[in-house]
# Entry
Amino acid sequence: MFEYAPAPESRSIVSLAPSYGLFIDGEFGEAKDTFKTINPATEEVLTEVALAGPEDVDRAVAAARRAFESWSARPGSERAKYLFRIARIIQERSRELAVLESLDNGKPIKESRDVDLPLVAAHFFYYAGWADKLKYAGFGSDPRPLGVAGQVIPWNFPLLMLAWKIAPALATGNTVVLKPAETTPLSALFFADVCRQADLPPGVVNIVTGAGDTGRYLVEHPDVNKVAFTGSTEVGRQIARSVAGTGKRLSLELGGKAANIVFDDAPIDQAVEGIVNGIFFNQGHVCCAGSRLLVQESVAEELLSSLRRRMATLRVGDPLDKNTDIGAINSRAQLDKIVELSEIGSEEGAERWSPPCDLPDRGFWFAPTIFTGVTQAHRIAREEIFGPVLSVLTFRTPAEAVEKANNTPYGLSAGIWSDKGSQILAVADKLRAGVVWANTFNKFDPTSPFGGYKESGYGREGGRHGLEAYLA
Amino acid sequence: MTATATSRLSGRPDSPADLRTFLHGLPGVDKVGIEARAAALGTRSVKTSSKAQAIDLAIRMVDLTTLEGADTPGKVRALSAKALRPDPADPTCPPVAAVCVYPAMVPTAAAVLAGSGVHLASVATAFPSGQAPLEVKLADTRDAVAGGADEIDMVISRGAFLAGDYAKVFDEIVAVKEASGPAHLKVILETGELGTYDNVRRASWLAMLAGADFIKTSTGKVPVAATPPVTLLMLEAVRDFRERYGRQVGVKPAGGIRTTKDAIKYLVMINETVGDDWLSPDWFRFGASSLLNDLLMQRTKLTTGHYAGPDYFTLD
# Structure
């Protein structure tokens, strides 16, 4: 066997301070109450960050409120300059930010380097371009910003989700208070430094770190005009409840259980790549992951044997190694959840398979796994696992595929694999999912709106549609 | 495979119509997908000990080639000497797999290579266009074998293939295979003229069904030669063919592979598509000329820690 020697990306490009305070009104404060953030691949403590309480959130919202008046009064072309500058600085610092993201999140460096960071910069470039064209975006002749946006983001794509939230908010003249996820606060704090480097006026972007309570203070804060959340459906529901009747605008991007549908005329080798990318990209910590494989029964055996052969080549391990395909699970809690649901899958009678694969002793790891013989009645076919676990179901006809694909409380994304264009169009038309990928999967672009049906949330992020959530 | 309508007795297509049904029943190839996969495999980082191992393997896989109208006995003798001892300064450097020349040059090369273990390949069958009567192609082949070639690189009739006359292409390969006798037969698909990935997959299967020992991408005489996605597709084809018929067929990308970096990308592709069984000069070759010196240069860099200039490596 041709073994690849270790090819680790150097982490020396990232220098971490022993602790980080909150970023409010353009300044990093002292960290009083703190919590630690660890590298999930080694359980090593990276640094500690401030735990924001209600008064901290108050201060952050007040700073954003003060900044709002002058920020929103600037011509769009002026705001665009700042966004373009931020985008360029992100490009310049992309290696540092990629290494940092992999350290804090556990994702493989090849993904943070080749997917996350380029998309982050692209998002800022894209919305910078809209800032002076809002009058022509189709939201009336004089669209107005909403005010202060309270934004809460998840741990799976920390910097990318930050970009999805902050870029359109700033382009439209809003100011923001953003809370990164408890387990992945670092890239947001480094982004605060990028804002300073770009001379962004104080208070336009504020970063408050903390856990669930901090997020709750933020979304329930009376002076917040807009709440944007990406995360679990459970928390999304609580937020919807707390925001109801307050007049705050709300957008939610929640869970998913996407169907990836493979028809018998699919390009098999490319479909296998798409399945792998759909569920093992980012350790399966992707809300739009293709976690339910629906394969036409007549090609199921052939497809699954190709899939197993392909899975045996996946390289699980050190996220900073350039040849790693699957990194670490982001946290102990998430690992426990994946383990639990996988055990339920076996107990309910589905057949579990993973390729032989050595997992490191320390850190949080889970081998890529598929369950075959899964039916609609299995919990692993209905609940979001949010890990590298694929449930495989079969179907007989296109109509049955559509029925099964839609038979879920979620509706974020779906995939179709077929060589027949007419079939792709006909099936895509019937799928109730925000994004339908044809002969590809997990492809993102700032120009394309993203969002869900049903319990996958409401509102759209990205594209022209993404502006609407921040304009009145 | 989803192909049907093969003979129940032989398991193979046995009439022109069956052949067509079979080839058109192969799964399609998604262009965007296969190009993305090939590009992704190209990002593997191969360093230090793996790189050293890869370079030596790549050298052992080179079919050192000269196919010019200006080839002379002197040029061919020099090239053959280089094939035996690519790096005169370093006896640990392995020889290449084979020398590849025109039929007229076969006796000259044979005289140098005899008994060395380095194979002698000859292009034949009215290379590179293949536009000649079958009898001429067969005579070309027999001549090369008689002169001492133990590998024949034939071209398929792209004209017949593109006209849909698969049976003609099939029969020609069978005839050339017979004329080659004990020599190994490499079948050049000239993928740059086939136009689509679907055609490359069909041509690969057609050649394998007709008895090819190797399938080869290109002549090196048309603008588009070997590319990573085409080679990936051909590797998938030999993998699937072995799974179905139990016979292993080799793959040879040729033309346009000039750097060590490129060569290593191909080795990574073998490693992660078909695996160990093809990681050998018996089953994978690079048709190249300038590639060898870049491999030697990188090899020297790995052992000495610094780059030597081009004048420190022999021309041919």
